[in-house]
Protein 1
Amino acid sequence: MLENPTIVFLGDSLTAGADWQKYFGDYTVHNLGVPGDTTDGVKDRLDEVVALDPGTVVLLIGANDLAKRRSVEHVVQNIETILVTLRNELPDAEILLQSVMPRGHEYAAEICDINRHIWQFASSVRTHYLDLWPALALDDGELNPAYTTDRLHLNAEGYEAWLSELEPALERVHGLPPKSRPIRLPELRGGF
C-alpha cells in the first residue's frame, strides 16, 4: 500500500461521471470532477485539492475550453499553471496528467496541438502523462462512436476503454507491479 493512499480525480464531467471509488477501492478517492468545468475553473479550485493533501492527483481537463472558444495557447498555459501550482503545493504527490480526450473530429487539430504541448511540459514538473487517444480516437480524431452517444461524454463502454489505460498507468505511477486482473478489451464490433 502507498504511504499516502488518497487519490484526487480532478476535471470536468468526464471525471465526474465515473465511480472512481468503485474502480480504485484500495484507495481513499475524492472525485472533484465538475460538469462543464474548464481549465479556468480547475485553476480556481486548486485550494480544494491541496486541502485534501492527496498522494496522487489524476487530472483530465480541456475539452470544454474549446467549445467556449478558448485558444490552444490559453488551454496550454492554464494546464501548465495548474501543474506548476500542484507541484509547488504538493511536492511529494504523484501527478498523472491525461491527454485532452477526443471529441468531435472538428476539434481534433486543436486538441492534438494542446496534447503535444502538455506532453512536452509534463516532465519538467515531474508529472506523468497518459495519452488516451490510441484507445479512444478514430483515425480522424473523432471520439470512437462506440464509446459515446453525443461525441463528447462517455458511455459504459467508453469508461471501460478509459480504465483499460488508466489502471496500468496508475500502477506505473505508483511503482507497483501489474495486478493479476482481467484485461479490459474494447468489444469488437461489426463482426471483426
Protein 2
Amino acid sequence: MQHGQVRPAVERDLPAIAALEAHTFPGLSYPYFTLRQLFDVHGRHMLVAADAGGLYGYVLLAGDGNGRSWLLALAVDRAHRQQGHGRRLLDAVLDLADDDREPCAVRVSVAPDNHPALRLYQAAGFRLAEQYRDYFGPGQDRLVMVREAHRRIQ
C-alpha cells in the first residue's frame, strides 16, 4: 500500500480541507471562515495527509493554554479509510503535542456509535472521561475521551 505524506497544512490546502470537512461531517462541519481562523491561530497543529492525487485527510489540535488541548477534527476521505491514514495523522499531531514546551492532556468528543473512531482513540491511549447528551444539539450525544499529557524524557 502506498502512503501519501503527512505534512503541515498550508493556506492553499484550506479549500480541500473545507470540502473534506463538509463531506465527512454533514450538518456539523466547520465552515470555511472558521477553518481559516483555526488555521491562523492553530496552524502549527493542523496537519494533512496528501499524495499526488490530492488531500485526503486532515487533523486539527487546539490548546487552551491551561494544560488542555482538544482534538477538534480528524477526517479521512471515505475512499482512503481503513488504510492507517487516520492513525498516522493522529500519531503525528499527538507527537507535536508531546513535543510542546508544556505538554497538555488531549480531549476529543466522539459520537457513541462511531466505533471505528472509538477504537482508534482507545488504541492511541485515550480513555472515556465523560458522556454528554445533546453535546452538539438535540440528538447529538457525545463521549468525551482524554489522553493524559505525555512528557518527553530529555
